[in-house]
User: Fold this.
Amino acid sequence: MVGSQSLLHEWRADDRYGERKRQPSAYNPLYSYRLPQGEKRQYAQQFADMYFLRLQKLKATVEAIAAQDWEDYEIAGERAQRVERVLDVRQGELSWVVGTIYIDLPLKPNVLEDVSKDHFISGPPPRTSYYSTDGEPQVMLEDNSGRLRLAGVMLKQNLLVTGVILAALGTENANGDFEVLDIHIPDLPQQPPRWKRDDEEREEEDGMKVDRPATKGKKIAFVSGLEISGTDADTMHMSLLTEYLLGEALDDGEQDAATNISRLVIAGNSIAPEVIVNQPVGMEEVKRPKEKKYGYDAAAYNPAPTTHLDNLISELLPAIPVTLMSGEFDPASYGLPQQPIHPAMFPHSRTYATTNLVHPEQEEPGWFESVTNPWDGDIEGWRMLGNSGQPVDDILKYVDLGGPDGTDAEGRLEVMESMLRWRSSAPTAPDTLWSYPFQDRDPFVLSKCPHVYFAGNQPRFDTATIEGSSGQQVRLFTIPRFRETGEIVLLDTETLEAEIVKFDIHGE
Amino acid sequence: MPPKTRRAASGPTARAGQSMLSFKGRVSKPTDSTTALKNAKTQLNEPAKEIITSEIVKQSTPEPEVQPKQTGKGKAPQVESPVRILPPPSRKKKVRRSAGEQNEAAAYEAAEKQANDLSDARITKFWKAEENKRLAPQIHQQGVHMHEKILRHFDLSSEYGPCIGITRLRRWKRARALSLNPPIEVLAVILREEAKENRKGGTRDAGRIAYIDELSGARDLAVAA
Assistant:
């Protein structure tokens, strides 16, 4: 129970109410996942370009690692040879080759099956997992020349999904499959030191070095899965959250602690999924309206959730800067990388945002920033990378980690660690994860290692630190869904430790 | 959920006594959507400042008239200085194009220059060298011009990536950016074909996209090279 000295006491003439100041937030976002605007955004490209770009970018790195390790790899007097194309492996010769993994699972959505079933049965329900115990997944290695089926025990021991670039050492067996003996992945990329980007920009402008004193106790708050819907008015938890962040809740000690929270990051799914009312097609006659109605059709669109969200954010904004990422159920573009929710959805909050929608990198970011999913940027000098959970959820459909619904948090962190080691923030795009067809660059390939990596809308909170071979250290954590758990995550900006604050209602 | 704004009860009863509004003579031409977009974009960035500064000017001009009245009691009337309006402090960041992009643009320009200076003899020599690498000669290509043969060979070289869904020039640029060292002679041929007036084929992109792409029915890639 909270100390109640300040909450209930007699009126005193000399009561002084001090003003509290929030810690400032050093914020320098990157716009790596923004898509070109207007006519430059085209969807006529092929997705094969994305795989080519990804392989091209990571091939050199993997080759270097593999060449160094397998230089003197010998089995029965035979040395391993580097082979250029996957189709050049020969039976009985020990060789290693670099390529992209492709996994064929029995329950994976197959467009040819869909086309053939189109005329006969109604569409299948969306599958929660592609993995099934009967029917083996087929793992193949692919590059621009062709595909090679892989076999061997190593495949079961390593987590592999479509889109991973790796080097495989082995030999072709009698079936024509490539028996894998060893695997190398690109591993963590270079990690920039803290404050690197801010220092570079400051040096260019002023030519002076900046002194950065360590501020103890400064925190960043992460929340995801607010899932505001128009029908359920469950605003109690959100009111508690707002009061806590604004420093209005509890007593002096807690309010002082709340001033340490310098920024709020909302990691997706702020709107609940059941909002859009589906009109049954062809079952009723569409009534002709008697008078022409201007504006939207009120029966289909419910503006209440976005209004609620706007009110929530505009209540927070004068006191705390907010970064809003789009999520799976938010009114943003569908495929990855999801574009920011348009400021038109937030009539009150957008006064705090920049007006330059086409080139936001030219302006100082405002206190309200609507950003992409996945998102990367610098907060307090630390490079952060995060997504609203879709890549992680998609990878878990390939494997059997952590039970059928992945509630075991161990599985989630392992997937996140693997994604960093594969240097890809969404390896299964475009195979099973909808994506924009990139033709010039694959933005999902990580060139710099982040200091913090988070995934929103996960069933539980969990955190870990992983290390790389050249001293990289990354803090991983999952953000639970606020609607279900009532928890937010606070990340300390000096020690990078994560803790949760839970909002709950007594008696529920 | 009812709409947020309600219209007043319409109908002849509400408007009794008022004549109908006439829109005759008002020009209401539909504007081209792209020009409207372009205008809208600039409006977001610039004219807001002009509107604000013009309003400041309007508001501040009455002040010099007020001042002499107030100071007229004991002091000599001062010469009113014109009110200076300072421009709003610019919040623009210096945009640094990443060093990689600038290098790439410069390198491509150099390559383009080199390609334009290439002689036809050099291109022919290049193609002969490529043909000599084959084990058997190509058949059914009698009617195909050498430039087209070079371009088709470039299309089918898978080390530069897939050729479907992208123009040849963009593919060459992309291969250059990824340090794959595509032959400069191919760029020379692409640029020369581009410069030609009469390109065969019915579609706009004939000769620009890969031949197999054309055969498979791809039309009019909207993104230009």
About this structure: Residues 11-15, 60-78 of chain B have pLDDT under 50 and may be disordered. The radius of gyration of chain B is 33 Å.
